Amino acid sequence: VMEADQAQAVDALRDLWEGRGRADILIASRYIPGGKAKMPLLRLMLSKGLNAVFSRGLDLKVMDMSSGFRLYRAEILQGLSLESRGYDILQEILVKAMMEGYRIVEIPFVYIARSNRSAYERVIKFGLVYGNISRCTLARS
What we know:
The chain is of the alpha/beta class. It has helices spanning 9-18, 41-57, 74-79, 89-99, 119-140; strands at 25-29, 36-38, 70-72, 104-108, 110-112.
């Protein structure tokens, strides 16, 4: 899975493919050592904050839950019963895969924002979606 409009996608794809034997799900992460997010400070703070809060709230050991650069083993996705149809599918996959015992690993990634035109809107949508996931997860516990 990747964001189609990113120039650095080739590097991310190469790194994900080379690391494919390390885990069932690989995430190219901006927020682990060696990773970096080149974006306006407010957007960076919002993104890091949302990722930290919901990673802890969903009890995932993932620093960059909203990364759009991932590599999944096909059989994992085929075996999960997924309900989400928007951005929240990224988190739903992680939660359900973790509950099934699959290994999730993050690798460093340098993200360079291309446009801020709709970025803040996406951060707000992620926040709302994450909040909904957290409520559903807590309600099922």
